[in-house]
């Protein structure tokens, strides 16, 4: 191993012959082992977005509230009063499929670092998880491990996990998805960027020592399909240490407060290589790194191993030389290791020195531009498959009787109560949480306490969504739905969206049908975001999520952040009071459909190829009116109608409020569609009659009064009735699966 | 048969617990300590030792990140005697 990976290994490192020739051309010679390792990671899909960059350019990235867009460690939006919210979602899918506890834990650790790298204090975590069907022991093992790992890291470091979502579908059986989103708060004028600046300035590595963690992670783990021989990839599992990260977090924030740092960057995928190259590229400078000065956890690491190690809890910063003493003093106070490992140069090259082998022993010398900008970008070759590529889900419900359908849906893995999962998370630490999971459709946080005593507490609402099966039915409309679903969730709390982060989890983009899914999905996201005026602030792409040659459901996960004027007026999800009226808000011309619905899944129906068109304008009008009503504080409850349709939404309102309802829900031949049909943009609201009339004044016949709150059962006109006990028992199925 | 299973973090794997102990010892005046690794021990009584390796692989240890060592000890005292 002394020379690192030999030149003949470029294919094993994920580079094509053509890419390898291009590297030789850019360097003017054959790369040595260190350079090949660095190039292979920098030119991997994970770092270079070589199959997705062209598409991502279609997404809108400008908006009135945007402070920092894509390209930085996290994006940021202005939430008023001089405050910024920085946020981002990122995947940790492959590490979690190998070791779910550590994979999910380090996924959380990584996204936290992205947020404090821009100078924001992390205030909330949300997660988006996908596993195979719960009947499979592997899925239960992965679910348990991932949920414990998220709780371990978030709870230990003291950042609340305030929300998230999980779906169980067979195509995720071998390739689970673990996407973590983090939000942080910072003074808007103190947001930090990562561009290295100032020739002669010092490059300082802070945090944990470097070991052989995750070596090759970016190129081998994140950009190749998982095969049968996963065991060979296992020794590279990264272990997270939330207590080390807590010290690193406080140390970095103090250094930023003092104004000590010129730039700051976290070390994630591809370790030092990627962080240093990105900092140099953005600052249009060069960097010289001495791997001999990097503190090691074990002796004898090769230079290439030090350059690509993914050891956790490390940050890289640039300071002026005379600030080193101050930095060292602050780091010592927080017990954070800090070592000057290099300097900023003018030559726009990444130069790697190994002083262990002699003072100026150069082991790598690469043009920064070649590493960051010259990776070839590939055009996708999308082709719409002639028929649906995913098989029908296993049939779980024989009965076509709506009496049986509701309990079956409530107890199904995708709709049952998530209590047994989110109770493992601390959702209250830091004391900002206003609505806990399942109390509202979005997580609600207050930005700061009511210091001036006027009783008004501005806040933010956050939602994360992305139903892969709907996107598998129709990549364009499924993605439009996911974005609108997030906006609808925010509206339930009275919040207007400010920005969106996304994580595009797809299969192998070199396959035409996956390329088609990706292209249609991004087109849908771009169109709907442009229409509703919400920018993308940043995100992440996770491709090659396949196993045994079959792709996962295409899963664009979107996280949306919105602002609301006063958290004191946020309605609950659940019905509140006997005698309140219940109304259904539906977009103009809305028709519920069972195609691609949860009920269709339980019935084992084939996935349709294509979902109904969405009238985005009509949905948006409903969302805006409901948002206004939520802010008015007159409605007692608001819940958006999502998976499982109207009947499931009503049952959830009853269960959350622990009170029944009598509803004149649709009757007739197409009763199943009326009760369980899906489609985005509907809301179930309740409140005193005058509050509902006020809403109706704004929306006209989009609002229909459908019943009243009261009793101990959900009773639908036409003799359908379920006691709350029965509904509650069904909804507790997920907990029972772990009993 | 009584068995004792010693489980420790694999060589090179980060051991946060060991690091905390290593940092705490000098605070109590113990100098010159390095490479602290913290593992755990499982003691069990077995009717048949045949399954012990599989028990370690599947439950007692996490073979992705831990090494283990099985020590077979003297037969357990017969509870009836």
First-to-last CA distance of chain B: 16 Å
Look at the structure and give the CATH class of chain B.
Answer: Alpha Beta
What is the topology, as strand order, of the major beta sheet of chain A?
Answer: 8-10-7-11-9-12-13
Quick one: biggest sheet of chain B? 3 strands, antiparallel
Secondary-structure class of chain B = alpha+beta
- Structural Rg of chain A: 26 Å
Poorly predicted segments of chain A: 1-7, 217-226, 228-235
Largest interface, per-chain counts? Answer: A-B, 20 and 13 residues
Number of contiguous helices of chain A: 25
Residue fraction in strands of chain A: 15-25%
Secondary-structure-derived class of chain A:
alpha+beta
- CATH superfamily label of chain B: Phosphoribosylformylglycinamidine synthase subunit PurS
- Report the CATH architecture of chain B: 2-Layer Sandwich
Mean pLDDT of chain B: 89
Query: What is the name of the CATH class of the domain at 26-39 and 192-372 in chain A?
Result: Alpha Beta
What general outline of chain A do the C-alpha atoms trace? globular
Main sheet: strands, sense, barrel of chain A = 7 strands, mixed
| The named CATH superfamily of the domain at 26-39 and 192-372 in chain A | PurM-like C-terminal domain
Global outline of chain B: elongated
């Amino acid at each position: 191993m002394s020379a690192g990976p030999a030149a003949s290994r470029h294919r094993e490192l994920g580079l094509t012959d053509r890419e390898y020739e291009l590297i030789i051309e850019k360097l003017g010679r054959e790369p040595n082992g260190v350079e090949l390792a660095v190039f292979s990671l920098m030119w991997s899909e994970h770092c270079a977005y070589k199959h997705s960059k062209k598409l991502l350019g279609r997404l809108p990235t400008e908006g009135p509230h945007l402070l920092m867009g894509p390209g930085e460690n996290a994006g940021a939006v202005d939430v008023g009063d001089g405050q910024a919210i920085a946020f981002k979602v990122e995947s940790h899918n492959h590490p979690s499929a190998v070791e779910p506890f550590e994979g999910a834990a380090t996924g959380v650790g990584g996204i936290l670092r992205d947020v404090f790298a821009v100078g924001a204090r992390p205030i909330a975590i949300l997660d988006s998880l996908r596993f195979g069907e719960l009947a499979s022991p592997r899925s239960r093992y992965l679910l348990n491990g991932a949920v414990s790992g998220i709780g371990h890291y978030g709870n230990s470091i003291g950042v609340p996990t305030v929300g998230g979502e999980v779906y169980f579908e067979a195509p995720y059986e071998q390739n689970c998805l673990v996407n973590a989103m983090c939000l942080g708060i910072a003074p808007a004028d103190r947001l930090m960027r990562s561009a290295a600046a100032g020739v002669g300035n010092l490059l300082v590595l802070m945090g944990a020592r470097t070991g052989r963690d995750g070596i090759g992670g970016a190129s081998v783990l994140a950009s190749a399909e998982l095969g049968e021989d996963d065991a060979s990839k296992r020794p590279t599992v990264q272990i997270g240490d939330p207590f080390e990260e807590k010290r690193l977090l406080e140390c970095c924030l103090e250094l930023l407060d003092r104004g000590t740092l010129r730039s700051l960057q976290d070390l994630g995928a591809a370790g030092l290589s990627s962080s240093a190259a990105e900092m140099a590229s953005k600052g249009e400078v060069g960097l010289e790194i001495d791997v001999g000065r990097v503190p090691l956890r074990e002796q004898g690491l090769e230079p290439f191993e030090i350059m690509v190690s993914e050891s956790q809890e490390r940050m890289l910063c640039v300071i002026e030389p005379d600030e080193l003493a101050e930095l060292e003093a602050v780091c010592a106070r927080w017990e954070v290791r800090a070592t000057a490992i290099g300097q900023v140069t003018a030559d726009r090259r990444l130069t790697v020195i190994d002083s262990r082998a002699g003072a100026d022993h150069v082991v790598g010398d690469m043009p920064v531009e070649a590493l960051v900008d010259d990776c070839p970008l590939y055009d996708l070759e999308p082709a719409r498959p002639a028929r649906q590529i995913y098989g029908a889900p296993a049939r779980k419900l024989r009965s076509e009787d709506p009496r049986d359908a509701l309990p079956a849906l409530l107890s199904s893995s995708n709709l049952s109560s998530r209590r047994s999962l989110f109770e493992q998370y601390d959702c209250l630490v830091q004391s900002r949480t206003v609505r806990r999971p399942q109390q509202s459709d979005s997580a609600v946080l207050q930005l700061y306490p009511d210091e001036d005593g006027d009783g008004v507490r501005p806040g933010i609402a956050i939602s994360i969504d992305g139903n892969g099966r709907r996107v598998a039915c129709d990549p364009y409309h499924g993605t439009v739905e996911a974005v609108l679903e997030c906006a609808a969730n925010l509206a339930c709390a009275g919040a207007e969206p400010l920005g969106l982060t996304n994580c595009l989890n797809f299969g192998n983009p070199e396959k035409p049908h996956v390329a088609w899914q990706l292209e249609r999905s991004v087109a849908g996201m771009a169109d709907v975001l442009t229409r509703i005026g919400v920018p993308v602030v940043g995100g992440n792409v996770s491709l090659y999520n396949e196993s045994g040659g079959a792709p996962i459901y295409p899963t664009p996960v979107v996280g949306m952040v919105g602002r609301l004027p006063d958290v004191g007026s946020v309605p609950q999800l659940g019905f509140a009071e006997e005698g309140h009226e219940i109304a259904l808000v539906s977009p103009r011309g809305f028709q519920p459909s069972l195609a691609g619905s949860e009920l269709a899944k339980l019935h084992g129906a084939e996935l349709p190829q294509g979902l109904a068109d969405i009238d985005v304008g009509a949905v948006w009008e409903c969302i805006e009116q409901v948002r206004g009503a939520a802010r008015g504080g007159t409605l007692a409850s608001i819940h958006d109608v999502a998976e499982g349709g109207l009947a499931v939404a009503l049952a959830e309102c009853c269960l959350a409020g622990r009170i029944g309802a009598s509803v004149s829900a649709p009757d007739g031949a197409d009763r199943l569609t009326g009760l369980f049909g899906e489609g985005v943009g509907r809301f179930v609201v309740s409140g005193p009659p005058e509050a509902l009339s006020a809403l109706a004044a704004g929306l006209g016949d989009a609002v229909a009064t459908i019943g009243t709150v009261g009793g101990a059962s959900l009773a639908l006109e036409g003799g359908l009735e379920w006691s709350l006990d029965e509904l509650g028992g069904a909804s507790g199925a997920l907990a029972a699966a772990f009993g | 048969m009584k068995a004792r299973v010693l489980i420790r973090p694999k060589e090179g794997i980060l051991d946060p617990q060991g690091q905390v102990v290593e940092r705490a010892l000098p605070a109590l005046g113990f100098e010159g300590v390095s490479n602290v690794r913290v593992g755990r021990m499982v003691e069990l009584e077995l009717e048949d030792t045949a399954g012990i390796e599989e028990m370690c692989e599947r439950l007692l240890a996490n073979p992705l990140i831990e090494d283990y060592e099985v020590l077979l000890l003297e037969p357990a005292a017969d509870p009836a005697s």
